[in-house]
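Protein modeling request. Please complete all fields; requests missing the sequence field cannot be processed.
Requester role: graduate student
Desired output: 3D structure, token encoding
Chains: 1
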Amino acid sequence: MSVAEPKPHDSGPLHVTGQARYIDDLPTEEGTLHLAFGLSEIAHGEIEAMDLAPVRAVPGVVAVLTALDLPGANDVSAGANDEPLLSDGNVHFLGQPLFLVIADNHLAARKAARLARIDYIEKPALISIDDALNAGSRFEDPLTYSKGDPDAAIAKAAHRIEGRIELGGQEHFYLEGQVAQAVPLEGGEMLVRSSTQHPTEIQHKVAIALGLPYAAVRVEVRRMGGGFGGKESQGNALAVACAVAARATGKTCRMRYDRDDDMVITGKRHEFRIDYRAGFDDDGRIAGVDFTQYARCGWARDLSTPVADRAMLHADNAYHLPAARITSHRLKTNTVSNTAFRGFGGPQGVVGIERVIDHIAHSLGKDASEVREVNYYASFKDKAGETTPYHQEVSDSVIREITAKLAKTSDYARRRKAVAEWNASHPFLKKGLALTPVKFGISFTLTHLNQAGALVHIYSDGSVNLNHGGTEMGQGLFTKVAQVAADAFGLPLSAIRITATDTDKVPNTSATAASSGSDLNGMAVKEACYQLRNRLVLFLKNQYRVAAREIDFADGRVMVADRSFSFAEVAAAAYQARVSLSANGFYATPDIVWDRIKGRGRPFYYFAYGAAVTEVVIDTLTGENRILRTDILHDAGRSLNPAIDIGQVEGAYVQGAGWLTTEELVWDGKGRLTTHAPSTYKIPACSDRPEVFNVALWDRGLNKEKTIYRSKAVGEPPFMLGISAFLALSDAVASCGDGTIYPSLNAPATAERVLFAVQRQGAGAGHGV
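Delivered output (769 residues):
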């Protein structure tokens, strides 16, 4: 049995010894060329003149290309055809690629790219959400999802609140930056190696740019050094640039962004503003709520439409809202085009409702966990028929059970009292505590993406070769899928060879995103494996005149009634009997129906649940803060690999807490990103993780839907558990006042923002701040 066992990551030893090969580690032939983009220095305007002679004069420069030199479509967008590889004469953000330098070494290309003499006709730039609103700059008309009559419910409620929260964006900060390599092949075909979550999209973009059929472009990726959504569409530009340059020069071309360029050029998590109104009773039970979400999308659509949609779809989080309205504005600005990031808009939606719950609790003088409990969706056992604001029935909720157990195992009630006692006796250091849940929908909201393919070979020596459409970015997908194959054949995990994702082997793949990698590819691999297993069973059944039930695969052997054979012996015999030992598997998620304009249907196959309790301490003199302890209970269903899943939960929590506490993106008034390096952009370090970090998977987890071995997705849902750190800071700030002023923290809650929030509480901890 391999499934559900804690197994190490298949590349773990290679990672820690430095032997794991990433794109930039791959050996290349002599004469490989290197590329760099020349970038705009203004945020909005037109190019009046561009003198590239100084660029071409740099030693080592082979060629310099502009949009006029491109052989095919000048487009690297995710689908809206609004994102040119190289500027068409218009400038939309500071850092936009204007021309492409091809040189014989990386440093020469980068240095040359900075030497162009460019004259611009500069235009006013829209940088902020307010700029876009004042200019009426949107990608589409506001979209509204609604249920019931929230205006009437709010008006009739015993109590009402309203407020606003601002949420900053987030840099992906993958350890391996954006990188690609293109190798020209005979007949004009192209081999592309790209650090991408979406090989098929790279294939399509390269083919269109070169005027080739998709089949003439092969894209391969063995692993990425992190992705987090930032390599779903952002790698298109590098791959297309490499392919165009390889076509022009006849040589292998490679391109990688240095960290500063990466941060300036690539999209981020969407910055949001959320306005809210809510009506509720004396217990905090919500009668109606009205959200208006403003998403700063940047200059091109990229994936902003589905990101903003998913923010709307998670505006309820784990709470039943009898009457709700969510209105979304997708704003166009002269900043980098924002893109996918772990949670894909869901975290912004969840923060909105969690702020409402916290605000309600403060207004009633209650513990926020009590208000959460009265608003949770009913347990699946109660069959209450409760629906989301987009009218999907929530029939699998386990949030009440999870939060009840976590409150007990984390000793929440006692610690709540202890925090109050601490705060009463300490004037300068204040503690905060928060318990927050997550309910996260699993599936692509673009229905046709919910499909996957796989290719499995059994060789005559019994070894197994496995390929599928998912990509490995450190999350352990390849290990989990290999476990599925090992389980099907009764083999040890070491007998399964996992090969690089390759569009020549499995075509028409979806991005490894939406937390669906294991769900989709695991099922496709299982389908392929059981085709092969059934062929072997039929062969053995006829060969030895036994019933199918008398044949079993386990521990590397095959039992045939009272006979025992090694798997290798069976494979060799089947080969000699001319039994096909290769199979393709395919899976499509069932029961998904969604109308994004009407806001009705079932966009998600199921929901994943979890909860976290976080305790923090703040210094009221400086705003400095620390996470002292975090307890997490997460529902991974019947986990395919508990060790990998726990690691995903830990990492997701820290990344989520970083987004909401330390990671601040700052643009100046000209549209220049000023936080474009580790020196100015603060991701969590080892010392920022909780001093006490207790993480467990829910031991009663079992997906009610027929997913791969009844497991649940675990990539994105635990990211939102980091919200507990943000609300614990809010709780600590609130303790500095007399209870009349709600803290209204914005995110990221940096030390400065925490300090200012303390000062807004009045005298602030009794020391006259």
